[in-house]
Amino acid sequence: MDNCIFCRIVNRAIPAKIVHEDDRVLAFEDVNAQAPVHILVIPKRHLAAVQNCQDGDQALLGHLLMTCSKVAAMKNLAESGYRIVTNTGADSGQTVFHLHLHVLGGRHMAWPPG
Ligand code: AMP
Question: Which tens digits make up the pLDDT trace of 98-110?
Answer without folding.
Answer: 999 999 999 999 9
